[in-house]
């Protein structure tokens, strides 16, 4: 069985700057993985297959590019620890996981046996990430920050590009002694409508968009500087600055999200930032790991009455692909 686990991501600053160009974003991979298992012997469309038609679409994309992809898509079993439509890129994690899993399955099917030694022509991961970006761009016309974030792990400082994958300027491992708090609002975001709106703003030269781009870029610079200094309070302030730019210049927040932010600050002293655009989804905050249980308990207690649809998810950063810890929860594995 081939099993692939891919982390989700939080955007700490700079939504949309990855595809608007001329601006910096800061992403953080979170250890809330999406897992895809290729189920051997099960027919395509079996109950193990994902509920969407993305497996068949990804397989059709790969059939034009890889040997060993004849016939229908293999059956897969999909699970995710990240809430869906929450601004944490669980959809991109699923797409990247499908590309990795199906490429591994195709390589196994195309294995060449010579003198009793099996050799497979594996597709390098950079190519798979590029293909995953092209696949998703054709459907949603968005950017490539999410693909780099979930594929590379860790914290990334990204320079945006108007078309194509953005450029990773710097990488950092998130401090081990910091925890991450996700507050899922229980409301779904609508990224497709948001991207259409922002692209129309870009075409019209909207000054509100220009103001947002400048302020979000400055917030990203402050967030990255705080990460490099190992200063979680400064990081929280930079994330709040990024959130304010999203809300004030682009209307990305909602009254519910603002109420949740105010409650988190009162109950736990935790500044929260909306992760992702689209008028809903999750808020994220950072605190020392030793304080995480208490913060989560206070937040959960405060939410239980007025916000029964919201929930608190404690997590940690997913290590970067170059880290010795990278194989703990994410990666590709095969079992006989």
TrEMBL record:
<keyword id="KW-0418">Kinase</keyword>
<dbReference type="InterPro" id="IPR013750">
    <property type="entry name" value="GHMP_kinase_C_dom"/>
</dbReference>
<dbReference type="Pfam" id="PF08544">
    <property type="entry name" value="GHMP_kinases_C"/>
</dbReference>
<comment type="pathway">
    <text>Isoprenoid biosynthesis; isopentenyl diphosphate biosynthesis via mevalonate pathway; isopentenyl diphosphate from (R)-mevalonate: step 1/3.</text>
</comment>
<feature type="domain" description="GHMP kinase N-terminal">
    <location>
        <begin position="59"/>
        <end position="154"/>
    </location>
</feature>
<dbReference type="InterPro" id="IPR014721">
    <property type="entry name" value="Ribsml_uS5_D2-typ_fold_subgr"/>
</dbReference>
<keyword id="KW-0547">Nucleotide-binding</keyword>
<keyword id="KW-0808">Transferase</keyword>
<feature type="domain" description="GHMP kinase C-terminal">
    <location>
        <begin position="225"/>
        <end position="299"/>
    </location>
</feature>
<keyword id="KW-0067">ATP-binding</keyword>
<keyword id="KW-0460">Magnesium</keyword>
<dbReference type="InterPro" id="IPR006204">
    <property type="entry name" value="GHMP_kinase_N_dom"/>
</dbReference>
<keyword id="KW-0963">Cytoplasm</keyword>
<dbReference type="Pfam" id="PF00288">
    <property type="entry name" value="GHMP_kinases_N"/>
</dbReference>
<keyword id="KW-0443">Lipid metabolism</keyword>
<dbReference type="InterPro" id="IPR020568">
    <property type="entry name" value="Ribosomal_Su5_D2-typ_SF"/>
</dbReference>
<protein>
    <recommendedName>
        <fullName>Galactokinase</fullName>
    </recommendedName>
</protein>
<dbReference type="InterPro" id="IPR006205">
    <property type="entry name" value="Mev_gal_kin"/>
</dbReference>
<dbReference type="InterPro" id="IPR036554">
    <property type="entry name" value="GHMP_kinase_C_sf"/>
</dbReference>
<keyword id="KW-0444">Lipid biosynthesis</keyword>
<feature type="region of interest" description="Disordered">
    <location>
        <begin position="317"/>
        <end position="336"/>
    </location>
</feature>
């Amino acid at each position: 069985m081939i099993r692939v686990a891919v982390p989700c991501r939080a955007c700490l600053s700079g939504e949309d700057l990855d595809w608007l160009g001329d601006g910096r974003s800061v992403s953080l991979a979170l250890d809330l993985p999406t897992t895809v298992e290729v189920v051997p012997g099960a027919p395509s469309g079996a109950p193990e297959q994902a509920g969407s038609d993305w497996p068949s679409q990804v397989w059709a994309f790969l059939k034009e590019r890889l040997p060993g992809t004849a016939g229908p898509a293999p059956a897969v079993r999909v699970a995710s620890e990240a809430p869906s439509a929450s601004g944490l890129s669980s959809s991109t994690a699923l797409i990247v996981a499908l590309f990795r899993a199906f490429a591994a399955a195709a390589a196994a099917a195309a294995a060449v046996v010579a003198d009793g030694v099996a050799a497979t022509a594996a597709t390098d991961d950079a190519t798979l990430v590029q293909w995953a970006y092209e696949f998703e761009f054709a459907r949603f016309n968005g950017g490539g920050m999410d693909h780099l974030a979930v594929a590379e792990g860790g914290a990334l400082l990204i320079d945006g590009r108007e078309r194509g994958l953005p450029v990773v300027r710097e990488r950092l491992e998130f401090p081990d002694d910091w925890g991450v708090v996700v507050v899922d609002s229980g409301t779904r975001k609508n990224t497709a409508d948001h991207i259409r709106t922002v692209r129309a703003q870009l075409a019209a030269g909207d000054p509100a968009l220009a103001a947002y781009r400048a302020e979000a870029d400055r917030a990203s610079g402050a967030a990255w500087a705080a990460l490099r200094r190992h200063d979680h309070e400064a990081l929280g302030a930079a994330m709040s600055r990024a959130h304010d730019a999203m809300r004030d210049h682009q209307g990305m927040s909602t009254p519910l999200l603002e109420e949740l932010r105010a409650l988190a600050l009162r109950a736990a002293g935790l500044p929260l930032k909306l992760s992702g655009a689209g008028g809903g989804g999750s808020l994220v905050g950072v605190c020392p790991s030793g304080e995480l249980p208490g913060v989560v308990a206070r937040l959960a207690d405060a939410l239980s009455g007025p916000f029964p649809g919201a929930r608190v998810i404690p997590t940690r950063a997913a290590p970067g692909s170059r880290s010795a810890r990278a194989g703990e929860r994410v990666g590709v594995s095969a079992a006989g």
